[in-house]
Amino acid sequence: MGCADPAASRRLRGRPRGTASIRRMTGFLIRWVVSALALWVAQALVPGIRIQGAATLWIAALLLGFVNAVVRPLLIFFTLPITILTLGLFLLVINAAMLALVAAMLDRFAISGFWSAMAGAIVVGLVSWLVSSTIGSSARVEMFVIE
Known about the structure:
Number of helices: 6
């Protein structure tokens, strides 16, 4: 069934227990930092977005990740016909709505209107894409060399 010596059992499997969960946690923390960075850049570039305090920024990044994981897929499913008719451009409106939803949940996070939310969603998306393309899916910095 199993090996009597736990250390030997771990060596036989090739890696210690908990390595996968540590990698998942590291990936989660890196995505959280990327979201916070993207929100910070958005509030620095878009005049209608205001985030007061670092704690609000971190909480907003966490809530944005939760909203994008739970609410956004449902919204995309229910608005699929209009998304198809607009050739995917309606996804920008959904992203703006997710950003506005997070702002509505927090007192110290304000968005002045639809166009500020739209511009903020575009900035957050671009910054997240740029940083994620550098980090990669393995949560390690990846470098490509072109010769």
